[in-house]
Design a protein that fits this description.
alpha/beta, eight-stranded antiparallel β-sheet, seven-stranded mixed β-sheet, 24 strands, about 35% helix, AMP-binding_CS, ANL_N_sf
């Protein structure tokens, strides 16, 4: 019998191999000097056993295989226990960025048509007052429940205690989650993740960055911390508001890094700027990664100064719909700075195998079939497309958006695959490196040809 295709499948193995290793460490209560005490931890054994109990309790409560379930819980042990429990039960977590506009958030939840809602008390109050997720009939409160019905996470876990190992026999194409985009390029869309996408993402991250079990990670974007247990890492959840990385207190970040010997750090360009401006060295960090937008060259240079000489600073390129697509290390990125400031765009590096990245002629209309595209050679700017193990195939309840972003490609063996249109424009240089030139929708057509934001803006920024 084949093992289920599920990101949670690795958790029982790690619980046997390294039961006492801390999997998740959370800020907890205030400690000495106003810094977080980090007194809330889950080791791999506890994460596995407790998520088993919660998975069994959720299934008994009607939140099992295929049930779309909104999760609105603060970063902490409950978030990780719930997410792994939902994966184990075969339910489909629905995650929406809590920082987006309220009307957009309601639209996202309406589109997802959730059947269950798990959240802290404040989230349930907002659900009632703002009319969120009216389709949800199964309710679970994390913490104290007041008058809105349903049950609590504590009761769910108690009901499932002692149930033993829980892992649904999920198949690669089964829906694993619905993750809404940030909305930075329009109204957020629900990206349909299948179990093979998550499993493929773990492998790509391991291979692209050389991640090995036993490291200590400081992931400043909580959903990314879900990959840490699958990789055998310890996650130290930082004492900050993840929706406002630019407002993080660098002293709190440095306190966590120093106290727990953090070896790798993940953060947005805004957070990297905070650390760069603070200017304090990061002696234990051997790998820093920044994604979400191009990292300004001066920030790259400063972070590299703060890291040990042997450390690496990676900036992966990708999107919610497929990640990672390409990666570049800070040294090479600095080497391309002059070309960027001369209008070449931002170099995002080499394609992560086994992704297939191709540049096609810019077309604002849907392209149903790959046979209808015109592929461009190296040196020419066009739309970036990706096919690979993490390339998702649809948006939930958004057929028009799906048609605009996905192309079906027939393969030589009689099969087919989905090619994702990134909505970004770029080009390949003669070294096989990918250059990002901006969003397709933000280009400006002129008599002399199109202008692309990431080629034009760096030129003006150097004046």
């Amino acid at each position: 019998m084949n093992e289920p295709c599920n990101i949670a499948a690795r958790l029982p193995e790690l619980a046997r191999e390294r039961p006492d290793q801390v999997a998740i460490r959370c800020p907890g209560r205030p400690g000495a000097g106003g810094m977080a005490a980090y007194d809330v931890t889950l080791d791999y054994r506890s994460l596995d056993v407790r998520s088993d109990a919660i998975a069994a309790g959720l299934s008994a409560h009607g939140i099992g295989r295929g049930v779309r379930t909104v999760v609105m819980v603060r970063p902490g042990p409950e978030f990780f226990l719930l997410m792994f429990a939902l994966f184990k039960s075969g339910a489909v977590p629905v995650l929406v960025d809590p920082g987006i506009d309220r009307r957009a958030l309601r639209q996202c939840l309406d589109e997802a048509q959730p059947q269950a809602f798990i959240g802290i008390g404040l989230a349930h109050v907002a659900r009632l007052l703002l009319g969120w997720a009216k389709s949800a009939r199964r309710l679970v409160t994390v913490g104290t429940r007041w008058g809105w019905g349903g049950t609590t996470l504590a009761k769910i876990e108690a009901a499932g205690a002692g149930a033993g190992s829980q892992l649904a026999d999920t198949a690669p194409d089964d829906v694993a989650a619905i993750l809404f985009t940030s909305g930075s390029t329009g109204v957020p869309k629900g990206v349909v993740y299948r179990h093979r996408h998550f499993v493929g993402q773990v492998e790509l991250l391991r291979n692209a960055f050389g991640m090995e079990a036993g490291g200590v990670d400081l992931p400043t974007f909580p959903p990314f911390a879900l990959f840490d247990p699958a990789l055998g890492l310890t996650s130290v959840i930082p004492d900050m508001d993840p929706t406002r990385p630019g407002s993080a207190d660098p002293r709190r970040l440095h306190d966590a890094i120093a106290r727990f010997g953090v070896t790798q750090l993940f953060g947005s360009p805004a957070l990297m700027r905070v650390l760069a401006e603070h200017g304090q060295p990061l002696p234990t960090v051997t790998r820093a990664t920044s994604a979400g937008a191009p990292v300004p060259p001066q920030v790259v240079a400063k972070i590299r100064e703060l890291l040990p000489t042997h450390a690496q600073f990676w900036t992966p390129y990708g999107a919610t719909e497929c990640l990672p697509v390409a990666v570049i290390e800070g040294r090479e990125l600095e080497d391309t700075r002059e070309a960027t400031e001369a209008g070449a765009g931002t170099c995002v590096g080499r394609v992560v195998a086994p992704n297939v990245v191709r540049i096609i002629a810019i077309d604002d209309a849907p392209i149903p079939d790959w046979g209808d595209v015109r592929e461009l050679p190296a040196g020419q700017v066009g739309e970036i497309t990706v096919a690979g193990p993490t390339t998702t195939d649809s948006y939930y309840n958004r057929p028009q958006a799906t048609a605009a972003a996905k192309i079906r490609e027939a393969l030589g063996d009689g099969g087919e695959r989905i090619v994702h249109r990134m909505g970004d424009v770029g080009w390949f240089d003669d070294q096989g490196r990918l250059w990002f030139c901006g969003r397709k929708t933000q280009r400006v057509e002129t008599a002399a040809g199109p202008l692309y934001t990431e080629q034009a803006e760096p030129v003006f920024n150097t004046v």
